[in-house]
Amino acid sequence: MMQNKILIGIAAVLFLGIMCIFTVSETEKAIKFQLGEIVKDDYEPGLYFKLPVVNNVKKFDSRIQTMDSKPERFLTAEKKNVIVDSFVKWRIGDVKTFYTVVAGDINQANLRLDQIIKDAFRSEFSKRDIKQLVSTDRKIIRDILIAKSREVAANLGLEIIDVQVKRIDLPSEVSSSVYLRMEAERERVAREFRSQGSEAAERIRADADRQRVVTLANAYKEAEKLRGEGDARSAEIYAKAYTEDPEFYSFYRSLNAYRETFNKPDQMLVIDPESDFFRYFKSQK
Amino acid sequence: MSWNEPGGGDKKDPWSGRGSEKGPPDLDEAIRSLQEKLGGIFGGGGNNEPGSSMKSIGYLAAGAVVLWGLSGFYIVDEGNHGVVTRFGKFTDTTQAGLNWHMPAPIEQVQIVNVKQQRFIEVGYRSGGAQQTLGSVPREALMLTKDENIVDVRLAVQYQVKDAKQFLFNVANPSETLKQVTESAERGVIGSSNMDFVLTEGRSEIVAQIGKEIQEVMDAYQSGIQITSVNLQDAQPPEPVQGAFEDAIKAREDQQRLINEAQAYSNDVVPKARGAAARKSQEAEGYKEQVIAQAEGEATRFTNLLVEYKKAPDITRRRLYIETIESVLSKTNTVMIDVKGGNNLLYLPIDKLAKQPVPNVETINLPQPSLSQPQPVENIQRGAVRGRDVRGRQ
Fold first, then answer.
1. N or C terminus: which one in chain A shows less Cβ crowding within 10 Å?
2. Interface contact flag, B249 A234, Cβ < 8 Å
3. Residues with Cβ < 8 Å from B43, sequence gap 6 or more?
């Protein structure tokens, strides 16, 4: 039974050994208690010793945690409701405070933080209108909120890394009226395009019509001028030729005119036999 | 290695193999055998052959130590980094290849893929072939500067640039990246106008979002490197898409109307130019024509005049007679002596004209009928001519 005892002895030593050491990893913070009293809380990662039973160790996640709160309604300066979704990035700053104030419970920490942040949000949002919130003042709000919450969070043993506004949305009943407005705006744009199109088209057509009229009129002008030139020239030619003997010209021209005028078989001439042409027709005088 | 030794069908593993060798796992029996071995180590009297027992236990211990040491070897694949911690404290980042660390429980290694392109999706989920159907309105819809709402879908690709930071600094880095992305995205889009987001501003916006995400992630020391931000889609939201499409159509309509008018113009103006050219050519032709005619006629007259002057009287008479001859030979001629008669002459000239051309000499003059006056229109020409003829007497 000697072996039995030895075995138990070794097991006990091993067990005690295990009881006497603990490790703190890179992602952890640890507190060592001695009979309930905190004796050390600033551990770097690594291997450490403790007394079994007398000491116990609690470890907490030292990484950056997220407090992703539920979207909530806030009133803006123009008394509009907006739905805001935000998140806070924090990590344990002072682990001792963290343990004592929120019992080292991340959920409880989040809950406390949420109240603080909401309050800060409310006051900042009520000072600004939607436009500022959505576009211009995001960074300002962020900085204000970080500064405000940092102080309070320190009391909880938390270190605020960042506060971000994720979403600023209009409530659905407002959204639908935004949609209506957008629709109306698009309609306006569409009409503008169409009527601008008609306008441009009308201009082009009118211009084309004008060009046609002007072109034709100019052509007419030119043509009349040419014709006039022709007429003038011919008149000149005629006059020059005919002034040599105007009387003979009238005679000659009249004859030509007779010939031209009465040259169709379905015309009928009723003639007085007394006319000069028939001088010899009745009797030789 | 002991588990490769032949002789046992199911003895692949030294520990479980030994267990089955000893029969059913019995605690008492296991303790007893351990007692025996341990007793050997401490030179206990219970054993018959202390020397051999010591030896075997020594081998066993040495083997265990060697095995323990060998278990410290590990392979880091290309594109991965190994992060070694000793009792939880970071000691080293190892590169690809065969590495050794002090075996558990002293040191531990976590292998992180630093080349792998990871990605997150904001505003949609691509799970499946139909990418557009996986919309997540809560993430996708956002306000713009001009208080419009747009539907934006974003994909962010990232790598781990620092395995140590990636492992140790942020709880749930990819979720964090998603939150940061959403926030940066909304910040950038919130400070842009809708038209800018939907049209020309896309690349600018993407660059800005990427920059902001990286800044924040660096501030968190998350060890994440954004490699690309892709705007999968930026659209007007579903309820107003019809109106937007109509506006786009309107733009097309505008162009169409203009093109149609241009076509009309292109048709009309050259035609007018053609017509104008015709007009001026015709006028030119007319001009040439009248001048030529005038010249011709004038020359003819001048030539004739020369001859006329030589014998005016006879030429005049000849011309007259020739002309009258020509005229009378071509027309229907009626000769009436109206000098003596004072009764109204009536000639149904229209009827005469319709008859085959009669011989002038054999024509039967119908009796003038007073009782049946013809409509004035029908006789007007004849009557007028008759009067003319009479008037000349």
1. C
2. no
3. B50, B54
**ω into B373 cis (within 30 of 0):** no
pTM for this one? 0.63
Would you say the C-alpha torsion B322, B323, B325, B330 has a positive or negative sign? Answer: positive
A284: left (phi over 0), alpha (psi -120 to 50) or beta: beta
Name chain A contacts of B35, Cβ cutoff 8 Å: 3-4, 7
For residue A278, which residues of chain B lie inside 8 Å, CB to CB?
A: 335
* DSSP letter assigned to residue A132: I
> Taking a C-beta distance cutoff of 8 angstroms, is the pair B150, B244 a contact?
no
How far apart CA B266 and CA B263 sit, in angstroms, is 5
Q: In this predicted complex, what is the ipTM?
A: 0.70
Query: How large is the C-alpha radius of gyration of chain A?
Result: 57
Centre a 10 Å sphere on the Cβ of residue B133 and count the other Cβ atoms it contains.
Answer: 11
Rounded to a whole number of angstroms, the CA Rg of chain B reads 61
CB within 8 Å: A89 and B176: yes
> Which residues from A are below 8 Å from B175, CB to CB?
66
The contacts of residue A263 (CB under 8 Å, 6+ apart) are B326, B327, B330, B331
- The two three-digit tokens of residue B323, written as one number: 């002309």
| Interval B203-234: pLDDT, tens | 899 999 999 999 999 998 989 999 999 888 88
Return the DSSP state at A70.
P
CB contact under 8 A, B277 and A234: no
B285: which residues sit within 8 A by CB, 6+ positions away?
Answer: none
Q: Is the separation of the CB atoms in A123 and A147 below 8 Å?
A: no
Cα distance between residue B40 and residue B38, in whole Å = 5
Which of B139, B180, B186, B209 would you mutate first to test chain A, the one with the most A CBs within 10 A?
A: B186
Q: How confident is the model at residue B255, as a pLDDT? A: 92
Query: CA-to-CA distance for A138 and B143, rounded, in angstroms?
Result: 13
pLDDT digits (tens, 9 = 90+) for B290-340: 999 899 988 988 898 888 889 888 888 888 888 888 888 887 777 666 665
d(CA B97, CA B104): 20
The pairing of beta strand B149-160 with beta strand B224-235: antiparallel
Q: Considering only CB atoms, which chain B residues are within 8 Å of A282?
A: none
Mutate to test the interface with A, among B108, B166, B331 (most CBs of A within 10 A): B331
Inter-chain touch B335–A273, beta carbons under 8 Å? yes
Q: How does DSSP assign B211-253, residue by residue?
A: HHHHHHHHHTT--EEEEEEEEEEEE--GGGHHHHHHHHHHHHH
Q: Which of B170, B240, B279 sits opposite A223 (nearest CB)?
A: B279
Sequence-distant (6+) residues with CB within 8 A of B80 are B96, B111, B112, B113, B114, B115
Which residue in B216, B280, B323 is closest to A255 by CB distance? B323
Look at strands A37-40 and B118-122 and give their pairing. unpaired
Tokens of B150: 């747009």
The tokens of A224 are what? 């009349």
Angle at B318 between CA A243 and CA B308, to 5 degrees: 35
**In the beta sheet, which residues pair with residue B160?**
B224
Token pair, residue B177, equals 């990246």
How far is CA B316 from its chain centroid?
Answer: 91
CA distance linking residue B194 with residue B363, whole number of Å: 102
